[in-house]
Amino acid sequence: MKISTKGRYALRMMLEFALHPEECTKISQVAARQQISVKYLEQIVTILCRAGYVKSMRGPQGGYRLTRSADTYTVGEILRLTEGSLSPVTCLETETNLCQRADCCATLGIWKQLEEAISGVVDHTTLQDLVAEQKRMEKKHGSQ
């Protein structure tokens, strides 16, 4: 499994919004701080808005902000929104394994363990955890 730029950038954009909860953040600000194309971020923010993860505010002080507190978003939900399934193999993408070989597949156990490990990390890491880590890194390196 490989996370695409869409998933990685969505997570970085959500982190930017979480780092500045008291203000509306413009896409151009995210683009400058994260060194990502404004046009690409505009496509991603549309997905985040449709899902209700962020809301837009119009006007001179407008921009985007989270609709919930940072501790209620998991990395897993953001990645699944932009990437789809995080399962390492297609036979685990549905609740019921439809593979004809499921009962006799010696490799299925390893794929299940890998899926559980991935979910264990992304579903237990919140945006607030990333905010704390970002602030810790900034303090350590003396940058803003």
Characterize the structure shown.
By secondary structure, the chain is mostly helical. The protein has helices at 5-19, 27-34, 38-50, 75-83, 108-122, 127-141; strands at 54-57, 63-66. A two-stranded antiparallel sheet has the order 1-2. Helix 1 (5-19) packs across helix 3, helix 1 (5-19) crosses helix 4 and helix 2 (27-34) crosses helix 3.
How far is the N terminus from the C terminus? 32 Å
The fraction of residues in strands falls at 5-15%
Main sheet attributes: strand count, strand direction, barrel closure: 2 strands, antiparallel
**Cα radius of gyration in angstroms:** 18 Å
Poorly predicted sequence stretches spanning 5 or more consecutive residues: none
Which range best describes the helical content: under 10%, 10-25%, 25-40%, 40-55%, 55-70% or over 70%?
A: 40-55%
Number of helices: 6
Order of helices and strands: HHHEEHHH
| Shape field | elongated
Q: Total number of β-strand segments?
A: 2
Mean pLDDT: 94
Structural class: mainly alpha
Question: How are the elements arranged and paired?
Answer:
Elements: H1 5-19, H2 27-34, H3 38-50, E1 54-57, E2 63-66, H4 75-83, H5 108-122, H6 127-141
Helix pairs in contact: 1-3, 1-4, 1-6, 2-3
